[in-house]
Amino acid sequence: MHNAHISALNAKHSHLDKRIAAESQRPLPDQILLAQLKKAKLRVKEEMQR
């Protein structure tokens, strides 16, 4: 069960990373959305480290 939780967190982290990259590539990236995505990614990373 623990491994499944870590795998799910890794997948979520990867998905957030891809969304951040995609938003950053736009001509006028939404800075508020980028900040929200980065905070979510950080929360997932902190959860993985526990």
UniProtKB/TrEMBL annotation:
Pfam families: DUF465
Lineage: Bacteria, Pseudomonadati, Pseudomonadota, Alphaproteobacteria, Sphingomonadales
InterPro entries: DUF465, DUF465_sf
The protein's name: DUF465 domain-containing protein
Taxonomy, superkingdom: Bacteria
